[in-house]
Amino acid sequence: MMLDLRKHGLFVCVLYMLLPLLCFCATFVPSDNYLIDCGSTTTTSVGNRNFTSDNFNKKLLSTQQEILASTSSKSVSSDADESPLYQTARIFTGSSKYTFPINQQGRHWIRFYFFPFIYDRYNLNAAKFSVATQTFVLLSGFTAPKNPVMKEYSINVTTDTLVITFNPFDNSVAFVNAIEVVSMPDDLIVNEASSLSPASTYSGLVNQALETVWRVNMGGPVVSSGQDPLHRTWVSDQKFLLQSSLANDFSNVAAVEYVSGGATQNTAPSSVYGTVAQMNTSGDPNVNFNVTWQFDMEAGFQYFVRAHFCDIVSKVLNELYFNVYIDSLAAAKDLDLSSQSNNVLAVPYYKDLVTPLADSNKLRVSIGPSTLNKDNPNAILNGLEIMKMNNSIGSLSADAASGAGGISSGSSSSKEKEEVGKTKAVKDMDSSICQRSNIAYNGNQDENVSSASAVQFEASAVDDLSGVSMSRVFSQLVKSEGR
Ligand SMILES: *[C@@H]1O[C@H](CO)[C@@H](O)[C@H](O)[C@H]1NC(C)=O
Ligand SMILES: *[C@@H]1O[C@H](CO)[C@@H](O)[C@H](O)[C@H]1NC(C)=O
Ligand SMILES: *[C@@H]1O[C@H](CO)[C@@H](O)[C@H](O)[C@H]1NC(C)=O
Ligand SMILES: *[C@@H]1O[C@H](CO)[C@@H](O)[C@H](O)[C@H]1NC(C)=O
Ligand SMILES: *[C@@H]1O[C@H](CO)[C@@H](O)[C@H](O)[C@H]1NC(C)=O
Ligand SMILES: *[C@@H]1O[C@H](CO)[C@@H](O)[C@H](O)[C@H]1NC(C)=O
């Protein structure tokens, strides 16, 4: 059917999908979006998001004693948009639960904000506690660091409610300053990745709880949660470089070219793909070295690593070939980004990797030139995400003696399957069908995912069809929507 359409000089392609599903995708609307400012008595605005008090929704929290704590001491990390969230906290003297009804099963971010202060007779600096869902231990024997910290997890919720339990250790209390439980796009983390050792396919990510350990923007500045469509924070890479003189930063954010079927802005925004660390060759064609970043992490776990690439440095196609290593293991050999992206430069690309069980507290990521480009040795990296995977007893903490209480059961709801099907249908649709001219957009403005508003594209020209033009069309539509 798609191929038939190609034969017509002028055609209309009608997409019975919603714009947010199609586009690249500042418009992802999470079906579950709990933003809770714990212990607060008012709603707190963070960028364009409102965190409501857990005092307003009594059904959410079950705890023995109502202790709403607050401090006037300003949290130290003033650069964060989130700093207002650290001014109040809930204190728990016994086991306490937040119960979140889940609209749509699937992966969710769970974010906890912690900033210990002294309130009344409670010194939160000494608080030691565990935090668990029905299925996973997220923290155990946890004591918050002196400075504010946000802990981010990603869990595929397969139950109708997500119960988060805080358990104080012995004579201690537990506390939390703020909580987020927010749906993620289903296709952001898929079931499979490349296993590094032995080199094979890792299958089973859908059942993994992940804890974000590092999320780094190579060659560029901090990308704050307000600048990321999924409210992730990306830190700058400088402090992780083993030898910073070997790396050279470059940026061209405007060059980033998202194409249909590839990485989207939800994978990482252009502020990440548009900055890069490359080899500092100083123009010498005979150089041969690796640029290496080193990250602290915890031994005894496997890690899910997502490496982001976007060739904004090459002038022509097929000029850049390079190798990527994690510790001493080959993560990618002779990587040619041009061929990964249908011969278009500056297309975002990412590679998902799973490390073997770590026996060291350091993880090194290196890039170096391939022997295939002798004249112009170079290698690049644009971004990196390192996530801890739960161990065999369902814990992200080595302290936990046993897994969490309940067992998750049941498969994904039919509603979820429908959404996954929709997204797939979009991908399957040959992106080359629609062309640039005469675009008419008749979609309605609301973002109701279940209402199938028809988006119409009228297009002429059938030859020279490329996914790139499609992506331009869509990003233009998004822009013209004023989002
Ligand atoms: C947040 O709250 C403010 C003040 O009540 C309101 O004006 C604004 O529309 C809210 N924003 C969102 C995204 O709900
Ligand atoms: C969540 O888990 C269920 C059951 O294993 C699976 O069918 C579904 O695809 C998973 N969803 C995501 C987004 O991983
Ligand atoms: C790149 O290398 C040259 C020569 O090795 C050195 O002088 C220069 O400082 C390096 N650049 C950076 C940004 O470190
Ligand atoms: C780069 O690192 C890898 C992995 O440790 C190593 O095998 C390779 O020899 C290194 N390349 C150079 C040029 O140092
Ligand atoms: C993580 O926990 C899930 C669910 O309990 C389990 O299926 C999986 O095997 C665990 N992961 C590892 C690496 O042991
Ligand atoms: C979304 O669409 C459904 C079905 O058309 C409708 O019942 C529901 O009220 C709509 N929700 C919103 C928020 O518009």
TrEMBL record:
A molecular function (GO) term: transmembrane receptor protein tyrosine kinase activity
Principal location listed in the UniProt entry: membrane
Entry superkingdom: Eukaryota
Range of residues in the leader sequence: 1-25
GO CC annotation: membrane
Biased composition (Basic and acidic residues): 414-429
Entry annotated with the keyword Signal: yes
Keyword tags: ATP-binding, Glycoprotein, Kinase, Membrane, Nucleotide-binding, Serine/threonine-protein kinase, Signal, Transferase, Transmembrane, Transmembrane helix
Name of the protein described by the UniProt record: Malectin-like domain-containing protein
Species of origin: Trifolium subterraneum
The organism's taxonomic lineage, starting at the top: Eukaryota, Viridiplantae, Streptophyta, Embryophyta, Tracheophyta
